[in-house]
């Protein structure tokens, strides 16, 4: 059996180990927030936003942001049917109604026309998820948001390093969220970030994230309302600081891995990889191959072929509306069609060129059999 190729694994160096060790040994008492503050400052500088708040997860950051917007039962939130559950779960915590719309066939992200058609007087927000690093059409979505008075949230958990006409993914919406789960481009093990340019929203989330205790409140142990507890520890933030100091290197490696895949299988008509339209930069968190309908290649054939070669490959996200607790929306033809003939490819930083060749060879061999 050939050695296993994992699909993700973080890039951890002496820098992460040194900061985390320092935080564990010394980051207490007066220094208990030191790495948290440094990580938030470095992250907001990198992103080009005024405010950043560390959280224990991206799910928590979304929950806080939606609470700060005042989401209420019955409010509608529009998002793509093609998504991981984390992007919609916080919507349901408010008994708000997720409205799943179809994605575009090339970006695998929200179709702005479908978003506009789904707007109702109850629409409170649009959650734009930049899938696998691919960017949503932010100009169109922000315009829809402005015209209808609806917040546009960027779930940029998969899009660190991606840029929309010079602005970093996550920096353009009402607020943005990130994940530092171990599978993401930068990691703290578990963790997340809330970012915004809106001073009032920042203050609101800060209060909510501190069990409802406002910054100005002088009375000790005095919450003014019931809030949340989604904080990141100083030790995790130490890892995060080292990772954000290496972010250019980490994103560059993701882009290099994608470009190797692109050289080997991206020129074939039957395999479509993540797009990078003019004016954008794709952080290529997760290189993904979508086979043409005509090729006859299916998810199951791909899974079997990768398993036989001892390579981890992930299935493309199932449509959220196909999950047992939501109402099916099979009319979302792209969301239902894409996962039937697609696969996520391994892309961890330390994989070798030989590994990339082995993966590409599987894609080519499956195609040759048809
Ligand atoms: C990973 C991910 C999340 C969830 O992040 P957690 O930190 O695990 O909560 C949310 N949204 C998207 C788009 C993700 O990829």
End-to-end separation in angstroms reads: 25 Å
Determine the CATH superfamily of the largest domain: Type I PLP-dependent aspartate aminotransferase-like (Major domain)
Side by side, the strands of the main sheet go 1-9-8-5-4-2-3
CATH class of the largest domain: Alpha Beta
Percent of residues in beta strands: 5-15%
Structural class: alpha/beta
What is the N-to-C succession of helices and strands? HHEHEHEHEHEEEEEHHHEEEHHEH
- Average pLDDT confidence is 97
Q: Give the name of the CATH architecture of the largest domain.
A: 3-Layer(aba) Sandwich
Number of domains: 2
In short:
This protein is an alpha/beta fold. The protein has helices at about 15-25, 35-45, 60-70, 90, 110-120, 140-150, 200-210, 235-245, 245-265, 300-310, 335, 355-370; strands at about 50-55, 75-80, 95-100, 125-130, 150-155, 165, 165-170, 175-180, 190-195, 270, 280, 290, 340-345.
List the helices and strands and how they pair.
Blueprint: H1 14-26, H2 34-47, E1 51-55, H3 58-68, E2 76-80, H4 89-92, E3 97-101, H5 112-118, E4 123-129, H6 138-148, E5 151-155, E6 163-164, E7 167-168, E8 175-179, E9 192-196, H7 199-208, H8 234-245, H9 247-265, E10 271-272, E11 280-281, E12 288-291, H10 299-308, H11 333-337, E13 342-344, H12 353-368
Parallel strand pairs: 2-3, 2-4, 4-5, 5-8
Antiparallel strand pairs: 1-9, 6-7, 6-11, 8-9, 10-12, 12-13
Helix pairs in contact: 1-8, 2-8, 3-7, 9-12, 10-12
